[in-house]
Design a protein that fits this description.
By secondary structure, the protein is mostly helical. It has one domain: Growth Hormone, Chain: A, CATH 1.20.1250.20. It is built from 18 helices and no strands. α1 runs antiparallel to α5, α6 runs antiparallel to α11 and α12 packs antiparallel against α17. The longest helix has 31 residues. The N and C termini lie far apart (53 Å).
Length: 410
C-alpha cells in the first residue's frame, strides 16, 4: 500500500488551488457566449461575479467559524464535492431549466460554496505543515492558482475553438474532474490538527488590533485589484479593443495569469531575502501603473500590455498579506485566515461588479462613449484599490508603532 507523506498533502493543496482557479475563472471566459446566447448585459455578467464572491464570503464565514470544529479533512473534502457538483450544474442546468440566467447563478452559488471553504482552509493547512520559510511556501502555493488559471484559459480557449462555442456546456463538466480527484487525495493524505482551542487567538482579540484591520484592508484591495482586471480582461480585449476571442483570451487573462504565476513562483524560490513589506509597496505602485496604462493608453497593444503587467503586480498581494499577518499573529488559526479571506472576497466581488456598473453607466450616459471607452471607465474607477494598498503599506510602520501584535492591543 502506498505511504502518503506531507509532500502528498502539499500536492493536494496545490490541486486545491487549481480547483479554486477553475471556479473563479471559467465562467468569465464564457461571458461573451452568455451575452450572445442569453442576452445578458454587462451588469448581469458582472452580477455573476458578485454572486460568486458573495457566496464565497458566506462560505468563508462558515469555514472560519466551524472549520476547526469539523476538522480540516472533512471540511476540505466537502469543499471539493461542492466545486465538482457546481461545475457539472453550470454545464447542464441551462439546458434543462427555462430561465438560463437563474440556472447559471444557481450553479455559481454551488461551486462558490466549495471555493470559499477551500480558500479558508488550504492556507492554514500549508501553514501547519512541518518546515521553515513559510512566506516562500505560501507564495509558491498561491502560484498554483495562477498556473491553474493559465491552464483553464488555454484549454478552454483551445476546446472552444475545436468543438465550437455552441458546445460550451461540455467544458464545465470536463473541468469538474479535477476537484473530483482531489476528494480522494484529501481522504488519504496526512493532515496536522488545527491550532488547539486553548492556544488559538480568538476573533475578539484580532478585532481590537489596529494592525489586523490594516491587513483586512490590504486583503480587500488585493482581491479587488486582482479580480477586477482578470475578470474583465477577456471581454475588454474582445469588445473594447476589437480583438478576436482567441487573441483576447491569450493576451488578456492568460498572459495576466502567467506573469502572476511567475511572480509568485520566483518569490517562492528566492523570497527569503526580500522584505515582504517592501515587496507589497512595490506591488501597489506597479499595479496602479498597470491600470493607468490599460485605461489611458491610446494603443490597443499597449492596453493589453497593461492588463498583463497587472498580473505581475498583484502576484504578491494576496499571499504576501496572508504571510505578513501570519508572521505577526502566529496563533491566529482558521478564524484569522477566514477573516482575511472574507475581506479578500469582498474586494473580489465588489471590484469587478463596480467596474461592470460603471461601464454600463458610462456607455448609457448622455456623453456618447464607445464600448472601449465605457469599459475603460469601469477599469479606471478600480485604480483606487492599488492606490489604497500604497497608502496602507506606507502606514505599516506607524501601525506597528501602535502595536500590530494582538497581545499588545491598540
Amino acid at each position: 500500500m502506498k505511504k502518503y507523506t506531507y509532500k502528498h498533502t502539499l500536492y493536494a493543496c496545490y490541486q486545491g488551488y487549481v480547483t479554486q482557479a477553475i471556479v473563479n475563472n471559467l465562467a468569465p471566459l464564457l461571458f461573451v457566449i452568455f451575452q450572445e446566447q442569453y442576452k445578458l448585459s454587462y451588469e448581469m455578467v458582472g452580477r455573476l461575479i458578485l454572486v460568486n464572491f458573495t457566496t464565497q464570503i458566506i462560505a468563508d464565514i462558515a469555514a472560519a467559524r466551524y472549520g476547526d470544529r469539523l476538522g480540516y479533512r472533512k471540511a476540505v473534502i466537502i469543499a471539493h464535492l461542492f466545486c465538482a457538483i457546481g461545475l457539472i450544474l453550470l454545464g447542464t442546468l441551462p439546458l434543462i431549466l427555462p430561465t438560463s440566467y437563474l440556472s447559471l447563478a444557481f450553479a455559481v452559488v454551488i461551486y462558490a460554496i466549495g471555493g470559499g471553504i477551500i480558500e479558508v482552509l488550504i492556507s492554514p493547512i500549508v501553514e501547519s505543515l512541518p518546515g521553515e520559510a513559510k512566506t516562500s511556501a505560501m507564495s509558491l502555493l498561491h502560484s498554483f492558482y495562477c498556473w491553474g488559471q493559465v491552464g483553464v484559459v488555454l484549454m478552454t480557449t483551445l476546446l472552444l475553438r475545436l468543438i465550437g462555442t455552441q458546445y460550451w456546456y461540455c467544458l464545465p463538466v470536463l473541468w469538474s474532474i479535477i476537484p473530483s480527484i482531489n476528494v480522494f487525495n484529501f481522504a488519504r493524505v496526512p493532515l496536522q490538527d488545527p491550532v488547539p482551542e486553548t492556544k488559538r487567538t480568538h476573533g475578539k482579540q484580532l478585532l481590537v488590533t489596529s494592525g489586523f484591520w490594516l491587513a483586512l484592508l490590504l486583503m480587500l484591495c488585493a482581491g479587488a485589484s486582482e479580480l477586477t482586471m482578470v475578470q474583465w480582461s477577456s471581454l475588454f480585449a474582445e469588445q473594447g479593443l476589437g480583438l478576436p476571442k482567441v487573441m483576447g483570451d491569450i493576451f488578456g487573462p492568460c498572459l495576466f495569469a502567467v506573469l502572476m504565476g511567475v511572480g509568485r513562483t520566483l518569490y517562492g524560490w528566492y523570497g527569503k531575502s526580500v522584505q515582504i513589506e517592501k515587496a507589497l509597496l512595490a506591488s501597489g505602485i506597479l499595479c496602479a501603473t498597470s491600470y493607468a496604462i490599460t485605461v489611458f493608453s491610446p494603443y490597443p497593444l499597449l492596453s493589453l500590455f497593461g492588463c498583463a503587467l497587472c498580473g505581475l503586480s498583484v502576484s504578491l498581494m494576496w499571499p504576501g498579506t496572508l504571510s505578513l499577518t501570519a508572521a505577526r499573529i502566529p496563533d491566529g488559526g482558521t478564524i484569522m485566515f477566514g477573516l482575511l479571506a472574507i475581506f479578500g472576497d469582498i474586494g473580489a466581488s465588489v471590484g469587478p461588479w463596480t467596474a461592470g456598473v460603471v461601464s454600463d453607466l458610462a456607455s448609457s450616459s448622455s456623453i456618447v462613449l464607445t464600448p472601449e471607452q465605457g469599459l475603460k471607465a469601469g477599469l479606471g474607477v478600480s485604480m483606487i484599490f492599488p492606490v489604497l494598498i500604497i497608502i496602507g503599506m506606507l502606514s505599516v510602520k506607524r501601525i506597528a508603532a501602535l502595536g500590530w501584535d494582538y497581545d499588545k492591543g491598540c
